[in-house]
Task: structure prediction
Amino acid sequence: MKKLKKRTKKRIAIAACAVVMVIAGINIYNIRKEYAQAGGEYGDVAKNVRISDEPVEAIPVEEPKKKESDSQFSFEDDGPKYDIGTYPNLVIDHEALKKAQPNYKGWLYVPCLEISYPVVQGTDNDYYLHHTFEETENVAGCIFIDAECAPDLSSYNTFIYGHNMKNGSMFGSLRKLITDPKPIVEDPYVYFYTEDGVYAYRTYSFHRVPPKSGYFSYVKDHQQYSEYIDMALSDRMVDMDIAVDKQKNSLVLSTCNGAGESKQRFVIHAINIGHYK
Result:
């Protein structure tokens, strides 16, 4: 009788394991299917963008000066960008992208990490975690600007979020910097293309932080912003050898890193270095 009970328990355990494996297999299949669907969709979206062989001369846009108490900044040229005084010549059909997605705000391009995606901004920070550019429900989601940030990139920190996809898409390439920071050290530039021109940024810090850290707080005045930059510089993984002008605003790219109790965020801080037509 005891042997029979042992055999029965063993069979139940084997059956349970089999069920778990089947469910896991189905989940993996569904995730891969959604990855493929998202990849196909973003491939279609990318048809609205092409990179010209010739870089564009970086001519600064004249911006109105802001008051000291204002949470916005003027955008002025302060050094070489993509090569010498140029930026990548992405030819983008903003009108078509805006027509396809009214929440479209611009195109994010990070050459060293092969990040090239449309960016949206919703009314909250949840919807685009699970919906693509074309509003399809999908685990890949969409790269989006924090709902509380100014849509014209004029906030002290403009937070941009994206999933850390296992296939390297979206912000999946950010994790490469943990083991090999060389790409961004050699090419630290981040570009945001809009109908109003190209906004260029230079990375000054990147590191891992807890999900609820002060790095995701909304800066309200210049004193807080100065302290925020000092904090980011003190926590940087690598010295980027850049003098940060605290009169310029920043982009903060963020993605998840790790899982379970060890789950963190990986963030990149980039200071504005120019606005060009």
Residues 15-33, 64-84 have pLDDT under 50 and may be disordered. Helices lie at 2-45, 94-100, 176-179, 182-186, 222-234. Residues 112 and 183 are 6 Å apart (CA to CA).
